[in-house]
Amino acid sequence: MKIERCVCTQRPFAGLLEQARADGLSLRQLAETTGASACCTMCGPYLRRCYRTGQTVFTQLLDQDDEPPTSPRDTTPHRS
């Protein structure tokens, strides 16, 4: 199973990360601007890991305990 998009917005994590980089968005701003992780919140851990590490495709289920909540340090998206 591949997990590669936010279910709420139907946007791929790769596209969300590109937008964060292009617009200089913090993780919080990215979520507020796009609505990612706003409805079901299930993609929150994936979005946070994507933003912090650059990983955009996941093959394991993550939950809220697998990736720490948004913090003030989440101001710059990972660059590859």
What percent strand?
A: 5-15%
Count of individual beta strands: 2
Order of helices and strands: EEHHH
What fold name stands as the CATH topology of one domain? Arc Repressor Mutant, subunit A
Name the overall outline. Answer: globular
- Structural class from helices and strands? mainly alpha
Q: What is the helix tally?
A: 3
Can you name the CATH architecture of one domain?
Orthogonal Bundle
Rg over C-alpha atoms, rounded to the nearest angstrom: 11 Å
How much is the average pLDDT?
A: 90
CATH structural class of one domain: Mainly Alpha
Largest sheet: 2 strands, antiparallel
What is the share of helical residues? Answer: 25-40%
From the structure provided, what is the oligomeric state, counting identical versus distinct chains? single chain
For the termini, the CA-CA separation is 24 Å
Strand order of the largest sheet: 1-2
What low-confidence regions span 5 or more consecutive residues with pLDDT below 50? Answer: none
Q: Can you characterise this structure?
A:
The protein has 80 residues and is mainly alpha-helical. The protein has a domain at 5-53: Arc Repressor Mutant, subunit A (Orthogonal Bundle). The chain is built from three helices and two strands, in the order ββααα. The protein has helices at 13-23, 27-34, 44-53; strands at residues 5-6, 11-12. The chain has a two-stranded antiparallel sheet with strand order 1-2. A hairpin with a 4-residue loop joins β1 and β2. α1 (13-23) crosses α3 (44-53). The protein is globular. The model has no long low-confidence stretch (mean pLDDT 90).
